Please model this.
Amino acid sequence: MSRVLVVEDETHLAEGLRFNMEAEGYQVRVVETGEAALDLLTLDAPPFDVVVLDVMLPGKDGFAVMSELRQAGQFIPTLMLTARGHPDDVIKGFAAGADDYLTKPFELAILLARIRSLLRRREWLRSIPGRAAPPEPKDSFSFGDKSVNFELLELRVRERTFPLTLMEANLLRYLIQHEGKAVARKKMLEEVWGVHEDTDTRPIDNFIVRLRRYIEQDPTRPRHLITLRGVGYRFVAHPADPA
Model:
């Protein structure tokens, strides 16, 4: 039975979500504050498979909870749920590490479909001790001594493995698909996040900084994720050897 944590301070909504998700066969726990959620989610083995996280919470808001959760190395699939649907808020949620974002009011069927999608991703990520080596992934890309598995949301650099958030993986995938080409920040917002309004593009830069920490031997002198000043970025899979 999949376990869902609902972090929501509106009692009627929280109980409605509990009732409907339990009817779908999920085991559901509800907490009302970000602090309570972090206490549960930063355990060595958090007892949940997916989180539904409201943004407007007393005390620590959902953005702070999401950011602290990822900084603590917990990559439990998380759906942010909020009445704040401005594009800047959507980008802020993804930048904090959210896997998906749904604005209120919402259709219950859509929320349940999003949860099922996140649970499938959780199964891909679940590590089974002693399992056989996985087959060659169908959705992957290798460059140099690095490989990214988009099914497992993992980036391997030599012997190290870095978990990626869904948005980090989607951004890297988009740059790889446009290898060697200049990609504007605004185009990334439109194509990766589906934001078509005039929105602050700085979160894109923050994502690139994080990806460089994984990929680049020297993030201050990037060779794969190249900045094009005043434009955006270019991905180079096989840079020429430095002179």
